[in-house]
Amino acid sequence: DTGVSQDPRHKITKRGQNVTFRCDPISEHNRLYWYRQTLGQGPEFLTYFQNEAQLEKSRLLSDRFSAERPKGSFSTLEIQRTEQGDSAMYLCASSPRTGGDEQFFGPGTRLTVL
Amino acid sequence: GENVEQHPSTLSVQEGDSAVIKCTYSDSASNYFPWYKQELGKGPQLIIDIRSNVGEKKDQRIAVTLNKTAKHFSLHITETQPEDSAVYFCAAPFYNQGGKLIFGQGTELSVKP
Fold first, then answer.
1. pLDDT one-digit tens code per residue, A16-49
2. B100 to chain A: nearest residue by CA?
3. Where is average pLDDT lowest: A9-13, A76-80, A84-88, B48-52?
4. How far apart are CA A87 and CA A75, in angstroms?
5. Is B103's CB within 8 Å of A44's CB?
6. A/B interface, count of CB pairs below 8 Å
7. How far apart are CA A32 and CA A53, in angstroms?
8. Is B32 in Cβ contact with A103 (below 8 Å)?
9. Which 8-state DSSP code applies to residue B79?
């Protein structure tokens, strides 16, 4: 399968714990996006990487959130001191190097904060 | 600011009928308009897209039309089947922020056999 993959698919944690999610984009896609989706809503942009550089961050991304893409391939999204309001589906998408408006999404990581 | 409005929020049709979902956008610079299908528990799947240099694009039973002057675009599904039941999202890119997609609110399509 050469699509976008995300791990884990589901995460249940207690309030105050830290969690980390991983995204592996489609090979050679140089742009990578993180979105958050709550029930009944469309995805909302969190942050964007071009290669290893994080170029944009949404106001939704509080200082408890950090994302990295150290070698321009996979990316991680960490949430520190989780809150119940962080419960959502976290989606990763990648976009190709050229002609690249298309964004292809992974299956998402469903986070539940108890 | 960037905004995408989508209607209706729910749509129920009989198998074999057509379904139409409409979106409007605010950013005049947008020139690419994708449609995604999302099934329960899965990520959004890109099903069709259109660029602003064309007014219509078809792929088998689905088509998208674009009116750039009026800033609206629509998804048309003909001969609907139960497996078309899902949530559909339109989106438009905001180029000032790396081409992030601004999504509509979604349309829950139910196709009754």
1. 999 999 999 999 899 999 999 999 999 999 999 9
2. A45
3. B48-52
4. 20
5. yes
6. 65
7. 10
8. no
9. S
